Task: inverse folding
């Protein structure tokens, strides 16, 4: 099976109208829970399935579209209302096409607020909606203020405790960015780099040995900048190697160049890499050099000659099923 | 000639005492200009030359040690006093060993202040001290506040005008970092990534076609994340290719892994890459795998088999001499 472990929801247009209303009204008054019609939802979801079929993806793990999470827009009720509504849409899509999708929850993170405010929605998504993982944004200020402490800090422990309790992984993904020097798509990458180093230099995996964390987009800058961090590791006489620490985390292939994916797979190894394309998303545009969309990554992975057939099976399917075990019972 | 285009000053211990005094007194009162004795300076500089000789470096371009630039410590006079003192030390080292060094100026940037405050020191360094380039820190708040606009913004034009007037390049290098989630060494990388995208999405090279900008550390995350930015380029129907834009900038090899340097040289091409090691610095520690220091990069570049002898000559020497032409008259 080809599992795209990192994909984002495609919704009927009525949801965009709802979002505008929530933002414009600052979620005050509370608007009713928007429920797209069955027909509108089916049309949108079949459109998504067509895009999956075009590139041979059999299943997607669907989460909210990150840059539309509204984590910094005041008041907190905006993201609270919106996140709940999007999670509901995802749950209906999974129910509609249970062989094609699994649900990954968005969390109503809000600026500098402790992520404890997210636990109620996380519980609901796992227990009532059957979700198998969640997103986590390391900077819910969205570049509008100094961010909270790094993911290695106990600030985040309330979420980690709940993830371990449910045995579900978290996908580290920032949202949008207010600062004019950093587009949201670039912030994704920088936040991935910051997340890796903050986690690997912390006690998180001592305190939560069973925690499963996925860093998307090939790990930001880190696999490319390994020499720097290997050297730091030795300079401080730390035990083991930086490479071993790196493998405490999981990474995904949502990086649209073959040279980079080869480097990722060499550095991290095929046991810690999950297939992912984010399609439709940033990479859904034709590469004039290959005549294929940038996010058509299945043939790219298939063409990497140093991966064995078993390695490829792990990357396409095995690692995702192992990590997101809650989605594949029995 | 083997030119290390990105190296940082090594100073006699008295300079550290001076720095502590300046910080502790908040540069109030003004302390006299510290001038290490000729003997102490010679000892420190010969120690540095020994480290260069160990790895076959014939010349270094020396600039202030970035994380010690104190760009966010109040008041502005701290970095003003310190920057001037360090630039003076570098000038003396260049004069002492004119075949081994060239000077690259530090600028007394201060938090959100316009970099116009740096022009007087830049003029002094070029006109009186004979420096051939300067550093530029995209975030002089050092992670203590929201940073100034990106390097593509006219906020930075006063410096760019002066660089073009003198026909000298700038090396983009952040300083330290106050935010606990981001060490200074990681911030170097993230600031490099932000600088590349901010510059390439701006009018800077329309407004300053002769401006020469070097992004160290292999360009941060960008060469590894090329697919993402290539796709964005096409999604917005921009003219040309992102790869062409990338070559408006120069990059250096201060990245301590061979896989990464191969990727850099493939993506950017040997005309836009300068040899650099930052030795002694982060990479000055033994790699247990190779038995050599991480920053012993000359044999690494020499071993890259897709580079011709002429390519290697450009990387080791030719590109540096072309860019920093002021350092090699006649």
Result:
């Amino acid at each position: 099976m080809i599992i795209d472990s990192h994909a984002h929801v495609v919704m009927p247009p009525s949801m965009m109208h709802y979002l505008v209303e929530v933002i414009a009204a600052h979620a005050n008054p509370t608007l009713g829970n928007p429920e797209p019609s069955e027909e509108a939802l089916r049309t949108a979801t079949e459109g998504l399935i067509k895009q999956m079929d075009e590139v041979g993806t059999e299943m997607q793990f669907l989460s909210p579209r990150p840059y539309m999470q509204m984590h910094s827009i005041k008041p907190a009720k905006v993201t609270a209302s919106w996140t709940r509504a999007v999670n509901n849409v995802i749950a209906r899509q999974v129910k509609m096409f249970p062989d094609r999708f699994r649900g990954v929850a968005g969390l109503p993170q809000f600026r500098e607020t402790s992520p404890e405010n997210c636990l109620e929605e996380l519980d609901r998504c796992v227990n009532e909606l059957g979700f198998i993982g969640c997103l986590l944004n390391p900077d819910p200020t969205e570049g509008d203020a100094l961010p909270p402490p790094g993911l290695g800090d106990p600030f985040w422990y309330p979420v980690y405790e709940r993830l371990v309790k449910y045995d579900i992984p978290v996908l580290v993904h920032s949202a949008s960015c207010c600062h004019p020097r950093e587009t949201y798509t670039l912030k994704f990458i920088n936040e991935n780099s910051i997340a890796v180093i903050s986690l690997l230099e912390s006690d998180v995996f001592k305190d939560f040995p069973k925690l499963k964390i996925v860093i998307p987009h090939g790990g930001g800058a880190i696999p490319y900048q390994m020499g720097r961090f290997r050297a730091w590791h030795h300079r401080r006489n730390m035990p083991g190697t930086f490479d071993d620490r790196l493998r405490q985390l999981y990474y995904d292939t949502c990086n649209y160049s073959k040279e980079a994916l080869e480097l990722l797979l060499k550095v991290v190894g095929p046991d810690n890499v999950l297939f992912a394309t984010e399609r439709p998303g940033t990479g859904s545009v034709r590469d004039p050099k290959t005549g294929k969309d940038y996010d058509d990554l299945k043939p790219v992975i298939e063409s990497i000659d140093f991966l064995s057939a078993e390695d490829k099976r792990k990357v396409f399917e095995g690692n995702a099923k192992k990590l997101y075990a809650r989605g594949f019972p029995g």
Q: What stands out?
A: Chain B has a mean pLDDT of 97. Strands of chain B lie at 3-8, 59-63, 101-105, 133-136, 170-172, 213-215, 250-252, 273-274.
